[in-house]
């Protein structure tokens, strides 16, 4: 308990300093924070998406080795968070694989535990959320998974999301750009737009030159994202607490774990409320704009109403004369 008290006391003092000499917190529009890296520090990637989309296989492609268990089956093979590291041109890459926390199911204590574990492994925050989905099979479950990502990591998470399509080999001679341009899947089109058209495709069975080429394509997308965000990673109050807990070592994790899990639940519930409010505002916004325009242009609206009534009267007179003439 002493550790928990110490964590709360130091939290606000550490809110802007996430790691010595390395990262500063930058406020976001929604009151959250983004951390910014200085120099070529570890690039942190979290694999997200629905069960069966190929998250673990994609992680193995990123690592160029079978670090995560991956099998073709309906049930998730990954039962808990795992992380592995590799290097890209001397830069350390941390890849976090996730259990089925992005499904349309109840929010159980196990779900919050897994979310807390994911936050701990990716602390002080991920640079990239790699949303994995199968090419040609973007379903309602994929849309739900994308929504869950925002519920679990907050509204700002979309700015850090890159869509990765598995089964690249199914494209044949068509490019991914052409496939997306010709797709009539509105949910997919909307997600691509929300994610700033950041996407890539993998053949997770590729080896040799093909594997290196698709990695190079993804790295180009990630480099562009890092440049756009000026090196900032996704951070919030919970990521900062997770980072402080990790800095405290195993003893701190054991003593503060139950209180940390309570914080996980509070953070996720807060983000779910904010997402619902945002969606509600999006639905109401066109009506509010129309109402505002009417209030600002009363004379024009009145003239339009009178003009419409006049046209209606003229049409009724014409109709009456036509009917009278025929009789």
Question: Mind explaining what this structure looks like?
Answer:
InterPro entries: G_AIG1, GIMA/IAN/Toc, P-loop_NTPase. The chain crosses the membrane at residues 300-323. Residues 40-243 form the AIG1-type G domain. Belongs to the TRAFAC class TrmE-Era-EngA-EngB-Septin-like GTPase superfamily. AIG1/Toc34/Toc159-like paraseptin GTPase family. IAN subfamily. This protein has a single domain (43-280), classed as P-loop containing nucleotide triphosphate hydrolases (Rossmann fold, 3-Layer(aba) Sandwich), CATH 3.40.50.300. A 6-stranded mixed beta sheet has the order 5-6-4-7-8-9, with helices on both faces. The chain has a 4-stranded antiparallel beta sheet with strand order 1-2-3-10. α1 packs across α9 (249-296), α3 packs across α8 (237-247) and α3 (109-122) packs across α9 (249-296). By secondary structure, the chain is of the alpha/beta class. The protein contains 10 helices and 10 strands.
């Amino acid at each position: 308990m002493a550790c928990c008290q110490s964590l709360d006391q130091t939290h606000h003092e550490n809110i802007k300093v996430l790691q010595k000499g390395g990262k500063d917190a930058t406020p976001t529009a929604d009151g959250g924070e983004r951390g910014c890296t200085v120099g070529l520090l570890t690039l942190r990637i979290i694999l997200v998406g629905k069960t069966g989309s190929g998250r673990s296989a994609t992680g193995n492609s990123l690592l160029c080795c079978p670090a995560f268990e991956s099998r073709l089956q309906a049930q998730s093979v990954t039962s808990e968070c795992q992380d592995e590291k590799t290097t890209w041109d001397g830069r350390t890459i941390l890849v976090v694989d996730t259990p089925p926390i992005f499904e349309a199911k109840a929010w159980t204590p196990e779900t919050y535990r897994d979310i807390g574990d994911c936050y701990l492994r990716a602390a002080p925050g991920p640079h990239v959320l790699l949303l994995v989905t199968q090419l040609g099979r973007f379903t309602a479950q994929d849309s739900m998974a994308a929504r869950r990502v925002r519920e679990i990591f907050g509204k700002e998470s979309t700015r850090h999301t890159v869509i990765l399509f598995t089964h690249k080999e199914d494209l044949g001679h068509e490019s991914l750009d052409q496939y997306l341009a010709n797709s009539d899947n509105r949910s997919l089109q909307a997600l691509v737009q929300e994610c700033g058209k950041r996407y890539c495709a993998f053949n997770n069975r590729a080896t040799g030159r093909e594997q290196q080429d698709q990695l190079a394509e993804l790295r180009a997308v990630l480099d562009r994202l890092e440049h756009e965000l000026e090196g900032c990673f996704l951070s919030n109050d919970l990521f900062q607490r997770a980072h402080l807990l990790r800095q405290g070592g195993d003893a701190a994790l054991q003593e503060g774990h139950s209180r940390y899990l309570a914080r996980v639940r509070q953070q996720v519930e807060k983000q779910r409320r904010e997402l619902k409010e945002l969606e509600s505002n999006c639905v109401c916004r066109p009506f509010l704009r129309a109402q505002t325009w009417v209030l600002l242009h009363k004379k024009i609206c009145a003239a339009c109403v009178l003009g419409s009534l006049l046209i209606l009267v003229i049409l009724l007179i014409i109709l009456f004369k036509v009917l009278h003439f025929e009789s």
